[in-house]
């Protein structure tokens, strides 16, 4: 399987909310980061995808522009649309994934997106007024981590 095929497999599985297939694309010691969860490693990453896929409402995902930077690094643009469970508001998250691949597995994965835009969509007026502040970003990050920890204890 080529690196591009691996990334296609990952995002096709994501579009179906198939966290098991997504996680099979990762190395055991996967390292992940994004603006909401911050830095995660190994089982935390796998649990995050399981939690997000199981809780996703009205979810659709599209992806394109898979770009191989070199034999290890690849990027992909993706758009997820869903109802944010915390507020019931519709979110359209435009993101770019950055992955490092070794021996046919993703070993590093980071997703970049504009946190203030996400906060405005997810929290409405409160997100629009305060989404640019570090206070609100930290509050959302702590809540996401707390939810993940609770999910992993189940």
TrEMBL record:
<dbReference type="InterPro" id="IPR037401">
    <property type="entry name" value="SnoaL-like"/>
</dbReference>
<dbReference type="Pfam" id="PF12680">
    <property type="entry name" value="SnoaL_2"/>
</dbReference>
<feature type="domain" description="SnoaL-like">
    <location>
        <begin position="7"/>
        <end position="109"/>
    </location>
</feature>
<dbReference type="InterPro" id="IPR032710">
    <property type="entry name" value="NTF2-like_dom_sf"/>
</dbReference>
<protein>
    <submittedName>
        <fullName>Nuclear transport factor 2 family protein</fullName>
    </submittedName>
</protein>
